[in-house]
Every structure is written in C-alpha cells, then in structure tokens.
From TrEMBL:
Domain ATP-dependent DNA ligase family profile, residue spans: 16-181
GO biological process: DNA recombination; DNA repair; DNA replication
GO molecular function: ATP binding; DNA ligase (ATP) activity
Alphabetical list of PROSITE patterns matching this protein: DNA_LIGASE_A2
Domain of life: Eukaryota
Listed PANTHER family: DNA LIGASE (PTHR47810), DNA LIGASE B (PTHR47810:SF1)
Protein name from the UniProt record: ATP-dependent DNA ligase family profile domain-containing protein
Keyword annotations from UniProtKB, A to Z: DNA damage, DNA repair, DNA replication, Ligase
Record-linked InterPro entries: DNA_ligase_ATP-dep_cent (IPR012310), DNA_ligase_ATP-dep_CS (IPR016059), NAD_dep_DNA_ligaseB (IPR050326)
Length: 224
C-alpha cells in the first residue's frame, strides 16, 4: 500500500484559456497530503505516518486520498505533528488535525459517484471521527471562480482546485484536476528565503516575498 501512495492523482495548473463552467470547485488546502490505505496513513513518498489509533478508528477500510490539516496558515504546525518518529508522537496533538478527504482512489466510478460514496461512508457529527469530506460547489463561470478565489485568499487560504465533471481517478498528474492560484503582477519585497528540498538540496528553494498590502507568498527559484 505504501507504493500506491506514491501514485496519487496530481494537479496541473489552470489557465484562463480553460472555461471552468460546470467544473467542481473546492478550496486548495495547505495541509500534508496523506494516502489512507485502509489501515495506515502514508505520505506521497510512501513514508508511514505514525498516527494514533483513535484518529483512525472511524475511517473505512478502503483507500482514501486527502490531506491532514490543522487550519489555514498552519502548515508548519501540521508538519511538526505528522512527521514525528513513532517514539516521539504526542497522541493529543492529533486532536488538532482533521483528515480532509477529497477522493476514493479504488472506487472506480466517476467523480460524482466517488463523492457520494465518501459522504455515505464518513460519519458526520461524530466527536470520535477526525475526518470529513472536502466541500465542493459547481462553478458557474469565470466570474464565479474569481469571486471564490478572492474569498479564499481573503480568508488566508491558498487557492481553488477544479475537478472536471465525470472524470475518473488517475494515478498520475492529470488535466482533469487543476489548481488555481492568484497571480501577482505588482512589485514585491523579498523578506526571506527557504532551502531547497529533494533534488534541490543545497540550492535556494524559494524566495519569501511580501506585497505592499502585507500578504506574503513563496516564489520558487532553484538557483545555486
């Protein structure tokens, strides 16, 4: 099951040439991608997350795709909890996390059928369930998408995900899943930098920039 975690559906980037009408919208989360095998959580790299039993108790015994999430702007906090080794895990910390589920990889049906399956199998209003299905709404057109994107940005979120209606789950990067983020075209001040990871170890990973309104964002670099 660890190998399956490394073949999850990945998004391409949306461009304005693509009409978003009738696509399904959800908020782009700033959590930790997590594949539920039916018994354990794994990262995209196939690494086991040492999650306490109470957190897994109410999940169905089928594969799920989602993110472990602490809330908007709390990515680093979430990382600090879920990437601890087994002997350093603090079970109480997981009460700060929700598993936000956006797909059922092994279902085999169209997207809408998979969402129905998820809603039927993830308990609601259960204090012992630390998972929920990501909310979606149908896009009414370009203006609707931009309004929703602005609302998410104003609330401190990352962006919008678009899912093509009737699409199947693919174990690869796919044009049926698109990420929509605000593109900034004004001057920004560089206020920090972050080290590269993986193949970019030893390189400059990203510049942290700040707009005149105080909003900060990362700008990828990859320079030595």
């Amino acid at each position: 099951m660890a190998s399956a975690a490394s073949h999850v559906l990945l998004a391409e980037t949306w461009s304005e040439e693509i009409d978003p009408t009738d696509w399904w919208m959800s908020e782009k989360l700033d959590g930790v991608r997590a594949y539920w095998s039916g018994s354990n959580f794994y990262s995209r790299q196939g690494n086991l997350f040492h999650v306490p039993d109470f957190f897994k108790e109410k999940l169905p015994k089928v594969p799920l795709d989602g993110e472990l999430w602490c809330g908007r702007g709390l990515f680093q906090k979430c990382i600090s909890i879920v990437k601890k080794q087994a002997n350093k895990v603090v079970p109480e910390d997981y009460k700060l996390i929700t598993y936000l589920i956006f797909d059922a990889p092994s279902h085999g049906g169209k997207y809408e059928d998979r969402v129905k399956f998820l809603k039927a199998n993830i308990p609601e209003n259960d204090d012992k369930c630390y998972a929920t299905v990501v909310g979606i709404k149908k896009c009414e057109g370009m203006d609707h998408l931009k309004r929703c994107l602005a609302d998410v940005n104003n609330a401190g979120g990352e962006g919008i995900m678009l899912r093509k209606p009737g699409s199947l789950y693919e174990n690869k990067r796919s044009s049926t899943l698109l990420k929509v983020k605000t593109f900034y075209d004004e001057e920004a001040l560089v206020v920090g930098h972050k080290p590269g990871k993986g193949n970019c170890t030893g390189m400059l990973g990203a510049l942290e920039c700040e707009l005149p309104n105080g909003k900060r964002f990362d700008c990828g670099s990859g320079e030595r």
